[in-house]
Every structure is written in C-alpha cells, then in structure tokens.
Amino acid sequence: MFCLCCPPGLTRRRLLASAAALAAAGAAPGPESGFTMTEVARGVFVRRGEDADATAENQDAIANIGFVIGDDAVAVIDPGGSGADGARLRLAIRARTDRPIRYVIETHIHLDHCFGASAFADDHPDIIGHARLPAALAARRDFYRRHLIELLGPDAAGDALPPTRLVTAQETIDLGGRRLDITAHAPAHTDTDLTLFDSATETLWASDLLFVGRIPVLDGSLAGWQKALSALKRQKAARAVPGHGPVSVSWPAAAADEERYLATLAHDVRALILKGADIDTASHAAAESEREHWRLFDDYNGRNAIEAYKELEWE
Fold it and tell me: Which residues are paired to 194 by β-bridges?
C-alpha cells in the first residue's frame, strides 16, 4: 500500500527500485535527447509524458507539458517534472522562437508538472498558480525536492518556483494576438488545479483534471472532481490536452472514461461504507471493474479508494 503522504510516482518502493538505474544513468542527457514536441494547434505545442512512474531513466518526464506562442510572448504550461525535463522544454521553445518567455503556469502542486520551473528562472517570468498553491508548496516542496534529489541527483532534480501571480477564480493573460483564459477550481484532482483555454484555437488545456489511458490519481476531492469535470465538459473546445495521455483528444468525448471511473469509485466506496466495510477492504475492492481500462491500475486504485473512503464516510 502506498504511503499517503507520497506524491504520485515517488513511493519508497519505487525509489529503492530506481537506485541501481540512477547509478547506471550517469550524467543527465542533453536537453535535446528524446524530446518530441507536437504542435496540436497553431502555436500550441505539447510534449507527451511517459506512461510510467518517475524513474532515473525518464527523469520524471511523465506529464504532458508544453507552451503557447503569441505574437509578443510565450507561456509555458507546466514546466516539467525535474530541472532536466524543464531544460529540455526551454531548449524546445528556443528552437522555435526567440520571443520572451513571459509566463510559467504551474497547473497544480504535483511535482511531475512543476519541478521543471527552475529551468526558466533566468527568464524572470511571471509564475502563475492557484491561490492555494503557496500553502501547498510550503507543505510539500521540501519533501518533493529531497526525493527528486534521491532519485535523480541534485543537478537534475530542479525545483518548483513560488507563484508571483495567484488565480482565485479566473484570470486572462495576453501573449499578443492571443489570450489564455485561466480558471482556478475548487478541490478536485488536487486543491490547486488550474485549467486554461486558448480561444484562438479553441484548445482546452485540462491538465490533470483529465487523465486518458493512465488511471486518474485522487489527491483532492472525489465529489469535487466529478463536479469540476461536469462543468468543464460544458466548455466548447475543438480539442483538449490532458495531463496524462495523448497530446490532444476530442472534447468532451475523451472525458467519458474518467467520468465513468470516478462514478464507479464513488458508487463502490459508498456501497462498502454502507455495508460496514473498513478502509482496507475498500482499498482492495472498490472500482475493481475498472482494472482492464487503465494503465498503472494496481499502483493507484487502492490509494484512490482510501482517499475516497476518507471523504465519503462523512457524508
């Protein structure tokens, strides 16, 4: 069973399993190594994260990250899972434009999305985050960094950067010729979730409010996530960029599997609570019907069931 204070991908079991790989990996690869950006819409570039947990080999490059280019400036949307990951992203931007990197948006607290931010420090961007992100960073940042250093070494680990601009409800940033609308959500996947919408291309950047293929990870509120997803589905968009999965998916059709999983998890946990089952039983029994639909099911479903049980037993 997972330690509930551990972030996705950095359980003690996986850290120990990666020790030999770290020694074999040696120096971090150059920023251009194995890094592919896909232009999913005009000026919107996405790097697909690996469908895996963090390892020394993948340097925590497991989340979908990318950037949007406007006439005057660039916005980074999730700077990556480590300093090495962020450095590759910055090089990919500079291969396409010399426009200033004016914004780095950390869509939520999880390290696979924000620990590449340190690679952009010399650009002096506005760091945009949820209004609750400073408190979340205060609680988790040191823990995350210690374990990334253990996994990757100090040079590759990187760091999140504290936000300089907080979003409490909705904000808009102007890149020149295109605007990005940023929405702060109530607790859902985490309690620090942001989504973005680029009206110029009708692209919804859903980040980790949308998992496709890889099992969702619950670290906020199950009921809140269901509510946020329902509201997000009303957003008309030509495409969506999930936090994990393909670089671009049809919207809102691509939300169907996640919506079903969350509903199944909620139904099963409520039924188990009504039967008097304890939390350990729930961790092994809830949402078992979903097993064949998700990668990393055994790694995260039990944890999700525990989080759901703690929330729903007080309804």
Answer: 184
Residue 62: CB atoms within 10 A of its CB come to 26
**Rounded to two decimals, what is the model's pTM?**
0.90
Say which amino acid occupies 187.
P
Mean pLDDT per 10-residue segment, the chain (315 residues): 38 37 34 76 97 93 98 98 97 97 98 98 98 98 96 95 98 97 98 98 98 98 98 97 98 98 98 98 98 97 98 95
What are the structural domain ranges in the chain?
Answer: 12-253
Architecture label for domain 12-253:
4-Layer Sandwich (3.60)
